[in-house]
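Hey, can you fold this one?
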Amino acid sequence: MQALMLERPPKVTPCDNSQLSSFQEDIFITLVESQEWYPEIFNWYCQKFVPGLVDSSRFILKYHVGNNVAGIALLKKDAQEKKICTLRVKSQYRNNGVGKALFGRCLEILDTEKPMITVSAERLCYFSNIFKYYDLKLEQVVQNYYRNNSSEYVFNGFLEWKTV
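Sure. Predicted structure:
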């Protein structure tokens, strides 16, 4: 296996609204991949995230390796919350520092060292090294929040219980 050469400093850039159409395929792939753990992710993206792009409370970051998008992050930053909503690195770019660099840029955009982030039990192992590196604090474990028979681990914040 050939080592992946990453740019130094990494090319992690915010995606503004004018770039959104060319970036939709990468966002769509990320949402499809995340749907297993977050069944309502498309509704959330359309109803919550996209309107937040308009009022500047939501941000999209993309990590490039050459001309390829290697990872993306969807962020929320408003008066009540600084949260990494989604952070995804494409499989061929994992274990090469892409996630750590992307996470670091998220901290800069959110202007905090301790953003809120939630992770499903099944995905926790993929984030454990980043969470240790950035010293994130597990605050809560919520059962059946995004889907039945699942646990959501909440770092640096708390989820309010949803009412139907």
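The CA atoms of residues 1 and 92 lie 11 Å apart. Let me know if you want another pass with a different chain boundary.
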